[in-house]
Amino acid sequence: MTEPILQAGQKAALLAEALPYIRRFHGKTVVVKYGGNAMTDESLKRGFAHDVVLLKLVGINVVVVHGGGPQIEELLSRVGKKGEFIQGMRVTDSETMDIVEMVLAGKVNKEIVELINHAGGKAVGLTGQDGGLIRASKLMINSTDLPDQLLDIGHVGQIEQVDPDIVYSLLKSGFIPVIAPIGSGNQGETYNINADLVAGKIAEILKAEKLVLMTNTPGVLDRKGQLITGLTAKEVDTLFADGTLSGGMLPKISSALDAAKAGVHSVHIIDGRVPNSLLLEILTAEGVGTMIRSH
Amino acid sequence: MTEPILQAGQKAALLAEALPYIRRFHGKTVVVKYGGNAMTDESLKRGFAHDVVLLKLVGINVVVVHGGGPQIEELLSRVGKKGEFIQGMRVTDSETMDIVEMVLAGKVNKEIVELINHAGGKAVGLTGQDGGLIRASKLMINSTDLPDQLLDIGHVGQIEQVDPDIVYSLLKSGFIPVIAPIGSGNQGETYNINADLVAGKIAEILKAEKLVLMTNTPGVLDRKGQLITGLTAKEVDTLFADGTLSGGMLPKISSALDAAKAGVHSVHIIDGRVPNSLLLEILTAEGVGTMIRSH
Amino acid sequence: MTEPILQAGQKAALLAEALPYIRRFHGKTVVVKYGGNAMTDESLKRGFAHDVVLLKLVGINVVVVHGGGPQIEELLSRVGKKGEFIQGMRVTDSETMDIVEMVLAGKVNKEIVELINHAGGKAVGLTGQDGGLIRASKLMINSTDLPDQLLDIGHVGQIEQVDPDIVYSLLKSGFIPVIAPIGSGNQGETYNINADLVAGKIAEILKAEKLVLMTNTPGVLDRKGQLITGLTAKEVDTLFADGTLSGGMLPKISSALDAAKAGVHSVHIIDGRVPNSLLLEILTAEGVGTMIRSH
Amino acid sequence: MTEPILQAGQKAALLAEALPYIRRFHGKTVVVKYGGNAMTDESLKRGFAHDVVLLKLVGINVVVVHGGGPQIEELLSRVGKKGEFIQGMRVTDSETMDIVEMVLAGKVNKEIVELINHAGGKAVGLTGQDGGLIRASKLMINSTDLPDQLLDIGHVGQIEQVDPDIVYSLLKSGFIPVIAPIGSGNQGETYNINADLVAGKIAEILKAEKLVLMTNTPGVLDRKGQLITGLTAKEVDTLFADGTLSGGMLPKISSALDAAKAGVHSVHIIDGRVPNSLLLEILTAEGVGTMIRSH
Amino acid sequence: MTEPILQAGQKAALLAEALPYIRRFHGKTVVVKYGGNAMTDESLKRGFAHDVVLLKLVGINVVVVHGGGPQIEELLSRVGKKGEFIQGMRVTDSETMDIVEMVLAGKVNKEIVELINHAGGKAVGLTGQDGGLIRASKLMINSTDLPDQLLDIGHVGQIEQVDPDIVYSLLKSGFIPVIAPIGSGNQGETYNINADLVAGKIAEILKAEKLVLMTNTPGVLDRKGQLITGLTAKEVDTLFADGTLSGGMLPKISSALDAAKAGVHSVHIIDGRVPNSLLLEILTAEGVGTMIRSH
Amino acid sequence: MTEPILQAGQKAALLAEALPYIRRFHGKTVVVKYGGNAMTDESLKRGFAHDVVLLKLVGINVVVVHGGGPQIEELLSRVGKKGEFIQGMRVTDSETMDIVEMVLAGKVNKEIVELINHAGGKAVGLTGQDGGLIRASKLMINSTDLPDQLLDIGHVGQIEQVDPDIVYSLLKSGFIPVIAPIGSGNQGETYNINADLVAGKIAEILKAEKLVLMTNTPGVLDRKGQLITGLTAKEVDTLFADGTLSGGMLPKISSALDAAKAGVHSVHIIDGRVPNSLLLEILTAEGVGTMIRSH
Questions:
Q1: Most Cβ neighbours (<10 Å): which of B211, C13, C128, E72?
Q2: Which ipTM score applies to this complex?
Q3: Burial code of C32-64, b = ≥16 C-beta within 10 A, e = fewer?
Q4: pTM score
Q5: Is residue D63 within 8 angstroms of chain C, CB to CB?
Q6: Domain formed by E28-292, architecture
Q7: Domain extents for chain A?
Q8: What is the tens place of the pLDDT at every residue in A176-199?
């Protein structure tokens, strides 16, 4: 009988280790940008859903924001449309936007809702249209060829205003909001918005304690490929300046920085490929990935 | 100046005529099955959205349930799938179900939400997955050829259980729930459910005062093609028996009858092609279409 | 069948026209000074009561303030007292004040309460004494003969303080407060106060959206007898200066102006002889009478 | 210094004596029928108002119901109407009813409201019309001359229904309801109702702990003129039977008995001529008058 | 019958006299330092408990703070420890502190709770540890012999912080908090704190209307031994300066003055040997003892 | 970096394992009888406090009931009293009861409160006197020598009634009630009650989900000394009958059985010597000790 009791003792000790973290985040809001492998690998998906439900049960208000690039690509190709990208952003004509909406709101969003509900939570899917959550406008981008010229890439949007009423209302009733990054324009037209930006803005408006961005890398790496575990705004500026940061990580860090500066206590870029990385990040001493703070 | 004032007087008189109806339905719940032309004609669409917002403002808890047949057909044909129907029900393999969900939850539902919000309401779109609203199971249908044999037509579902928490929560916070007829099975699989049935069941669970089914006919017609303005359960049985009722009206009336028997005070099959038919039905003495009561 | 449906369509369109107004005033407070013909003509009375109940049902907090000149005159003459007036104000000895109170609080107020309740509302009558609503003091008026001399005209009062608790409490419970313009002095004595002034002050204290003064004229008329539909504070000053405004309209406009300056969004002097004029003013595009705003 | 302290000690002891009574009635409802001398003598009036406010402050929900016979008589005579009585009830034509309403609702009711407010309470006057409190119908009385013939004595009413919402709403907000015994008929006509009956019915509907009827006698007297301090329903029946009870006391006791049987814990007929009799009855061991219980 | 009624009349008059005081203190908070004879004499104890319950029932939030010197002395002597005092404060080693806690929290506190409950209240005993009410630190005192040297007298504490949540929570639920003057240090160690200081600080934090310190003297006496009934901060300074105040009264007055300056409306040093002195002080015109105000 | 991440992964997996348990017990009440070694060993004490706070944070309403035998013994011997026991129960004269109360309420209870607060909770100590929680009467026991003779062993009590108001009030405000097993008699006298019985009765009254009794044994052992992990009421009866159960375990099991029969879902007798045994029992698959259910 000794053996199993010892094991049990270890379990209890590990649970007990979570106490100070639960205490600190109890009643606080955590916004999670869900994406990458964690959204495609079956085992990681289930792990994510369990993490979300557990965080909810220990008193944390979890809000999930998701993207959906690969799934969009798939349907586009099925209906015979080829994606065109300018500066990493998809040129989105009305037909493409229809596909984007259907995939994000009708497929990806509902799968996440189902996943969380299956794990015992009560998730409710939203887009920026529901309850007037996100008002957006067309994002014009600077031409890299012709200075001072703006390019119209269609239904790609930027956030104008967030009305968090529906999110508060759901949180108050114990639901877990799952948000697809679609905004609604003044004329009822819709816009596809970068999910990292949506997560950052929602975190800011909700005065979230944490913003967690799940990626497919271990976090921010230095020039030697080593993980940087913590960064201040100032240090980020240096890394931008010396070219350490580049590629897909650029917008992610920029969005993280904005949220941190706007009052979100800490922003984390974590490795979604690590099982239960969300739980690890929030409830244990083992940080995963890179933490960014304003100072 | 006399002329406009006279006009004004008429307007006021008409507004005043609505008083007893507003009084009677204030604080009550009305479930509306939205479909047909009212969902495709631009002017009728706007009229419907205005009606919903006005009913909400005069204190009625409006819940919208919608279908989406034509839009589904369109996307299916774009991805090269041909619809197959057995006994009027679409055979729905997994691939088709994906399309159904994307169209209903990602396109039709969001358009209605946007429409209502543009008219000044605060709509929130739901499917049966959100908040665990509708639990469903596979509907097996009787073969017409081989008695006692059940046919499997895929992801076509029947309602097992309704958990109205999310609907109550939204109504309490002043939102207008807009529900796509998709249910969630025990294994996380999804089902396409007849929207009339969903509307009827939701009305029943919410103890609604009224269930309004919007169609493309003037209502229930007798053998001479004349509109029947009122029917009791008993009279419906007679019409079934003598073959007056047939075709697409059959399931609609059956669903209306179930709701009426389960306690919904009155069920109305109204002509969605008449502008503002919803308002007319609820707030004026002019009934539109056929009213069905249990007795 | 065509004919009635067409009529119905018109009705619905008219109802729908009210939507933006209902939306704008939902949850707001409207104070109505009720008086003149609208208070004596049987048909206008019923129309007024219906209007009040309908406004209440569409979510507007209606507060009614009333006068009662003619009815007071009648009882005074029955008990053999002759009314004496100085500068348009009734000289009010204690015996007269008793009659004034009995008529206003015991007869006129209760008739209005009954009228509204009969139309389906839940009205509750108040005077300034109930719940300590209006504290008043004696109004001394300047002699027109002897400068610097003040005349005592008895129990005619001016408002010292308003404690709106009882009004808020009734509104919160869904009742419609109906207020007789009587104030209570420091020694428990009572004062008759001009009903327009009471309505204006109550509107100001309640931060009302609208103050509506019902009269027996089409509104403010210019020198040619034409209705002026809109006036700013500045324009009113000009009209005062050039003598366009005079007679009974003077105190009414003065009171309207005070309310507008104190934050009531708009004040309306409307023609109570037009049926349902209250509804017309608030819920349709047809303004009736003159609107006064601070700028 | 000894002397005043001794006095003080006595005071404190007397206050302390009230403790068990305050404890017992805290949060309970007491309905008081206010009338007779206590309503005309200046010093008794002030004493009554102080008692009511003190009871309110120690946590008792006080509801006052009042009559007003003498004041009605006075105005009737001033307008030249002579009161006619059948079986002790005033024959009340419409003109008389107008006078009754004006006196009760416009004069007596407001005086009591003012009196209580002056003592530091927050009273609100009501008639049975306010908030639809009392629905009444015409009381037909049996002719003493012709058996089986009913006499119509005009606007004298009996209670059909009580809707206590407005009373609960006022009590909940800390106000003291003061009720004039006027009921409202189906056609909007009004009825004068015996105040003892109104008090009894209100006590019953509110499930009051106590009903206190203030009179101008020491209470119920036996044949020798001695005060009877307590009576059960059974004992009352005996007194009725042997003719001990008669005259004006009859309806009072009958009303008391009805209330007691309907669940009011105790009914008290007390001597309103004794200063602070209300306080004495409720907060001290010194009962005043006669207590009636169901058994 | 005349005789008892007369007596009753006097009682009622005395009760009525309390009205203005009840009105003034209704809903306000009164902190009482309970100690001295009032805590040892059986009859005074019962009187105190009745006073507390009566004050609670008339709507006053009573909070009791108590000391316990004599009882501590008794147990210390039983376990063979001799009390040592420096500058009037008990030198408190850990063993002594254990005794102090056991007596204050386990004996004296519970006796007061029981006493109040027996009188019909619902008291709940607390120490500064419960709900983290009082955080304290070690009080170092100045040596009288060696200037600039601080003496360590063990577990005698000073208040660092008060977290009134538990007190508010109990008051809101209708309970009467009874507080033993023990504070909790950063390392979980406990401190004995002067009960007058605790009462003063609690009164300040709760923004109490009154602080009442019960003593064994008639109040503050002047040089001729006459009671001073009222003192301002300035007058207290004079009395300090001229040496009128001295001995045990010094810290009491100092604490009273601090509370008065920090916003407690009035502080009273009253004679606990007078029966029901608490009631007398709060609910009658007979002040007992000395009242101290900031100005 | 691989190594720590692997460790982290294990941690996360273990945390995730707690999910179903947290889900099941969220919002439920767990009563813990705290005693034995877990109350004396410093490390076990801290572990217990951490467990309680963690359970509270994951949404479980924890109520602690404690004993205190050894500490009582110690003080008794210091004051020169020798404990006398009859049938395992301490003969408790008034002087002894004083000691018992001081130790339980003034020392043990406050230490537990401090311990939990130090771990980040907000504990509040209670005895059965606070808020009238436990009403008790004297327990008379049967003489083993003389049949039919009852022995009086002083202030040893049995529970007559539990008024859980104070416990509900504290739980609702987020506090953790810590209860000393002292009850209050009709005359204000106090009784020492067996802590297992108090825990069982409190669990029953609160309709607790679980009752956990912490002991110094691995649980219930069979005749060969092997742990029995689960028992039904029926099986307990058999063990009683065949003499397997005896000694100190008898009353514990009897109390467990009563609670189980009265509706507590499961009762656990666990080994308090195992670190974090409380957490293990409630949040992991590793049961510790013996579970008793009604069937």
A1: B211
A2: 0.92
A3: bbbbbebbeeeebbebbbbbbbbbbbbbbbbbb
A4: 0.85
A5: no
A6: 3-Layer(aba) Sandwich (3.40)
A7: 28-292
A8: 999 999 999 999 899 999 999 999
